[in-house]
Structures are given as C-alpha cells and as structure tokens.
Amino acid sequence: MKLTAHSAAESADSVRNVAIADLLDTCFDSVHGGRTYYKQVPHERLLVWSGRDLIGHVGMDYRMVRVGEAILPILGIIDLCVAPPARRQGIGAALLQRAEERAKAQSFALAMADDQRLYHGTGYSLLPAASVTFLAIDELRSHSVIRRDLSDIFMVKQLGGDAWPDGQIDLLGYLF
Ligand SMILES: CC(C)(COP(=O)(O)OP(=O)(O)OC[C@H]1O[C@@H](n2cnc3c(N)ncnc32)[C@H](O)[C@@H]1OP(=O)(O)O)[C@@H](O)C(=O)NCCC(=O)NCCS
C-alpha cells in the first residue's frame, strides 16, 4: 500500500484523475457525475494505492472562516472515502490523521458528516449549535448565500490554539 500527496496544480495526470473520479462515484453513489470533485477542486489530496488500484482518497481545503468575531484557519475535509473491499482496515482513519498532520498550522479540522462513526472515533465532535452561512453551489453554478442550522453534520476537531469560540459561523465560501 502506498500513500501519495497531490496539490491541485498537479491535477493534469489523466490516469490519476480517472481513478479518483471512479472511486468517488463508487463511494458516493455517482453524485460526482464522473468528475474528480463535487463542487470545487480541493487544494490538496491524499491518495492510497494498492498496486495500480486507488483505494483511498481525502481532499483538503485550506481556508479562513469566521466564528462570531474570530477569524480561524481551518482544514476542510472533503470526500473522504475508501473502496468497499478495503474498508474496516484503518485506511480511513489513517487518511484523516495524515491530512491533519499536513495541516498543523490550521487551528481546526472541519468535516460535514452524515455518518459520524469514523469521526467520533478520531477526535471530532458535533458542535452544540452550528448556524452556518455559506455559498450555495448548485449544478456548478453559484446559487446564493444561505444560512442553515448544520448542527446535525458539522464536526470539529481542534488541531491547535484555543477552543472553538461561540458565535455564528461564516464559511467564507462553499460548503465542502
Ligand atoms: C467512512 C469510510 C471512509 C471509512 O473508511 P474505513 O477505511 O473503513 O475506516 P476505518 O477502517 O479507518 O474505520 C475507523 C473506525 O471508524 C468506524 N467505522 C468506519 N466505518 C464503519 C462502519 N461501516 N460501521 C461501523 N463503524 C465504522 C469504526 O469505529 C472504525 O474502527 P474499527 O474498525 O476499529 O471499529 C468508508 O466507509 C467510506 O468510504 N464510506 C463511503 C463514503 C463516506 O461516507 N465518506 C464519509 C464522508 S463524510
């Protein structure tokens, strides 16, 4: 098994891009529509290969977000996925850990998670209140700026610095 890291600027490798798009479609019921991204290309990716097969992926978004009056550097976890035959072997947890290590300068890692089992086991927790403003993107078009209560999916892990402050959250961009 081999783990590789890639920045968005390196994304011209067509073999790798086909493998990423195939894995995303397999793991997320084809909502990515054959693309290597859902709403936006991540700044970085970590990939896990077994021979020529891509078996693990995580996208990383580096961003400043506003929480009340505080401006915080965060790592956004995007499209974390592991090929079905390779699941429950620790690859998902290892990808999360490596992503967090690469983003040490960020104060928090954020993940929007419907299935929270992996995140709960790796130090993430739901915020008790998460009123979130973000840019809604629909069918690859900027749609509107909206505010939603995301307290059922908005997971946070502290990577350094102070605790998560109180206040309304403004993602200063799209919801990854
Ligand atoms: C979620 C996902 C990435 C987990 O990958 P993985 O490599 O199987 O995860 P790990 O083996 O590192 O699991 C770590 C822990 O997470 C929890 N976990 C992960 N998947 C689980 C499952 N299907 N059922 C129960 N617990 C699970 C367990 O606590 C597990 O530890 P354990 O095996 O010692 O019990 C993978 O199931 C996947 O790709 N799912 C589809 C895409 C998806 O939903 N991605 C998350 C987007 S937010």
Bound molecules: coenzyme A
Individual helix count = 3
Stretches where pLDDT falls below 50 for ≥5 residues? none
Which value, in Å, is the CA radius of gyration? 16 Å
Helical content (DSSP H or I, runs of 4+): 10-25%
- The total beta strand count reads 10
Cα shape? globular
- Termini gap: 28 Å
What would you say the CATH architecture is? 3-Layer(aba) Sandwich
Strand pairing plus helix content: what structural class?
A: alpha+beta
Profile the largest sheet.
10 strands, mixed
CATH homologous superfamily placement: Gcn5-related N-acetyltransferase (GNAT)
Can you write the helix and strand succession as a string?
A: EHEEEHEHEEEEE
Question: What does this entry look like structurally?
Answer:
By secondary structure, the chain is α+β, with helices and mostly antiparallel strands. The protein is built from 3 helices and 10 strands. Strands 1, 2, 3, 4, 5, 6, 7, 8, 9 and 10 form a 10-stranded mixed beta sheet that branches. The site of coenzyme A has 17 residues, from strand 4, helix 2 and helix 3.
Question: Could you write a compact summary of the structure shown?
Answer:
The chain is α+β, with helices and mostly antiparallel strands and 176 residues long. Helices cover 17% and strands 43% of the residues.
